[in-house]
Amino acid sequence: PLTRKSLSGFVVLLGNSPIAWKTKKQQTVSRSSAEAEYRAMGFTVKELKWNRALLSCFGIQHEDPIVLFCDSQAALHIAENPV
Questions:
Q1: Cα dist. 63→17, 18, 53, 56, 60 in Å?
Q2: What are the structural domain ranges in the chain?
Q3: How far apart are CA 43 and CA 24, in angstroms?
């Protein structure tokens, strides 16, 4: 059915190898594509933190900053300037 809810998705790479990936329908209807992308970034960061903790349990320490790519300039602007 048509719900107007956006889809969020990500792929986590360790080196050049994918170690996690997911696509999920967002729980709320966003008012703009920028809002949907911003929500997707938040969802992805939560998953990245969980994956970092899981790798730590396996003895793989990754202390470097994690790079998050996003194709929405508006969402990146929102993320850089929290209210």
A1: 18, 19, 11, 10, 10
A2: 7-80
A3: 10
Q: Cβ(44)–Cβ(68) under 8 Å?
A: yes
**Cα–Cα dist 20/58, whole Å:** 15
Look up the pTM and report it.
0.81
- Roughly what angle, to the nearest 10 degrees, separates helices 73-80 and 33-57? 70
Q: What is the CA radius of gyration of the chain?
A: 14
Q: Give the C-alpha separation, 1 to 22, whole Å.
A: 21
DSSP letters, 22-61, are EEEE-SS--SSHHHHHHHHHHHHHHHHHHHHHHHHHTT--
pLDDT in tens, 30-68: 999 999 999 999 999 999 999 999 999 999 988 888 889
Whether 47 contacts 12, CB under 8 Å = yes
